[in-house]
Design goal:
Blueprint (H helix, E strand, L loop, with lengths): L9 H5 L5 E7 L5 H13 L9 E5 L2 H10 L7 E5 H11 L11 H19 L9 H14 L5 H4 L16 H15 L8 H11 L8 E4 L7 H9 L6 E6 L22 E4 L7 H11 L24 E5 L2 H16 L3 E6 L2 H8 L7 E2 L12 E6 L8 E6 L10 H7 L1 H16 L2 E10 L14 E4 L1
Parallel strand pairs: 1-5, 1-6, 2-3, 2-4, 4-5, 7-12, 7-13, 8-10, 8-11, 9-10, 11-12
Helix pairs in contact: 4-9, 5-6, 5-8, 6-8, 9-10, 14-15
Length: 461
């Protein structure tokens, strides 16, 4: 297929100098993914003086399949990968990783539980040790994502939920001891979060020529600071790194400066034009971004309302979960004959409630996708898996107040932090829809949605 033509500010950014660091922040639907493809092709162009092997990198594997679908076969010097494939490949070629060296999530939680038990013996009774394992697992993940390796680097850091540590200063010594105990139990094996630190360390010691001259990061808001640092180290002095992201879509929140992330950014380019959503869908996305759980986010880009017109997002109240499932499946099948339809859900548990009722030819958005099909039909998966993708019709089931925010997340992190985390997910789901958005619930609707009923067409089943 032919690559799309650049439009609007894409033309300005596309041909920026092919050396140094560039940051582009854009609203949902502003064409960042298209620009990522075009920028990678430009940087790898053999007819230019700056040409060189280019890594086009993103976070989830479903988006990798989509990017490869957009990529022309003739762009031989562009490699499209997700971050963890890049990290595993690099560590493997440096003989720092072998088969089965990465812990499965369930094994990781088991080691964290052992670390908690070990540290609690030394400190005696304390309320912090009564918190769920998930609470400590998330903090250990956050520590690794920031590249923090010492207690001195941890104890004075700012509190800020998704944008800082969730641990009060009085408890940090105990929590860092748990982190250190987990590191010892983990020995030389990796989890998915500490690979970036290993890549950074290995690149610092690596004196061989860099494999890539240029790196283009798509959906960069989901990359941890340590991932970004490692990618900045992966290019030579005459190379370039282009960062494209949307702070409002941030699922893995990080309050950190460009310089702290290893980037020297002179100017941030902003994309405000929304080319994907109708006016009605874009307005709902904007109103979600104005909700209290979005307050205090730096660098958020407020979109310019698109010109395309369409129906209001439909908010459907169902009498039960069974009725909700039947309705969602029927709506998806009816629309899928002529349109691309995505059923997006909070997690795999919710996905399992739907999957058995879907047609056999429905496509799951997941890490095992190797090809992308653009024909009409049904796709389904989590909000995370849909990052960077777009569909004609998006259906968001189970948006009830007792399910969203997730009760387990509320129990582990408190209501305010749960609202922050779950609200970002909902924003992602809403802004995947190009022309039609359907949100269903039973009981009371989630408080994560704006209570302005003029934004919706309300239906009761």
């Amino acid at each position: 297929m032919n690559l799309p033509k650049p439009i609007g500010r894409q033309k300005e950014v596309l041909y920026l100098p092919a050396q140094g660091h560039i940051a582009v922040l854009g609203t949902a639907g502003s064409g960042k993914t298209i620009l990522a493809i075009l920028r990678a092709a430009y940087l790898a162009n053999l007819k230019t003086d700056h040409h060189g092997k280019t890594l086009l990198i993103t976070f989830n594997r479903a988006l990798v399949s989509y990017l490869k679908h957009l990529q022309e076969d003739s762009i031989a010097d562009v490699v499209v990968e997700n971050y963890h494939k890049f990290a595993r490949g690099y560590l493997g070629c440096r003989h720092k990783m072998s088969f089965n060296d990465i812990f499965k999530p369930e094994d990781r939680e088991g080691l964290i539980k052992k670390a908690i038990e070990h540290v609690s013996v030394g400190y005696g009774a304390n309320d912090i040790f009564k918190r769920p394992v998930q609470f400590f697992a998330e903090e250990i993940r956050w520590i690794a994502q920031q590249g923090i390796t010492t207690y001195a680097g941890y104890k004075d850091i700012e509190n800020g939920g998704s944008y800082g540590t969730i641990i009060a200063p009085r408890d940090r010594e105990r929590v860092f001891k748990i982190y250190e105990a987990y590191q010892e139990l983990r020995a030389k094996r990796y989890d998915w979060d500490n690979m970036a630190t290993a890549v950074c360390a290995e690149l610092d010691a690596d004196r061989s020529p860099r494999r890539y001259r240029h790196v283009v990061i798509d959906e960069g808001q989901d990359f941890s600071p340590e991932m970004i640092r490692s990618l900045a180290k992966a290019i030579p002095p005459d190379g370039s790194l282009t960062f494209l992201g949307d702070v409002a879509q941030q699922i893995y929140g990080h309050r950190i400066s460009w310089r702290e992330a290893g980037l020297d950014i002179k100017k941030v380019w902003e994309f405000k034009e929304n080319y994907r959503n109708t006016q009605q869908i874009a307005k709902l996305g904007l109103e979600i971004a104005k909700m209290p759980y979005f307050r205090g986010i730096p660098d958020i880009v407020e979109p310019v309302a698109p010109k395309a017109d369409g129906p209001l997002p439909t908010l459907v109240e169902c009498s039960s979960i069974d009725q909700e499932i039947k309705l969602v499946v029927k709506l998806a099948i009816d629309a899928a004959s002529v349109q691309t339809v995505a059923i997006l859900l909070r997690d795999r548990q919710d996905e399992n409630k739907i999957i058995q009722h879907l047609p056999m030819n429905s496509i799951r958005l997941d890490r095992n996708m190797t090809t992308w099909q653009s024909d009409p039909g049904i796709r389904y998966g989590t909000y995370h898996a849909a990052k960077g993708l777009e569909f004609d019709v998006v259906i968001l089931p189970f948006c009830s107040g007792d399910r969203l925010p997730d009760p387990e997340t509320v129990a582990a992190f408190g209501e305010n932090e749960a609202m922050v985390r779950e609200g970002r997910l909902l924003y992602v789901g809403v802004t995947r829809a190009k022309t039609r958005l359907i949100i269903t619930y039973n009981g009371d609707v989630t408080s994560l949605l704006p209570p302005n009923w003029e934004l919706y067409q309300r239906v009761k089943q």
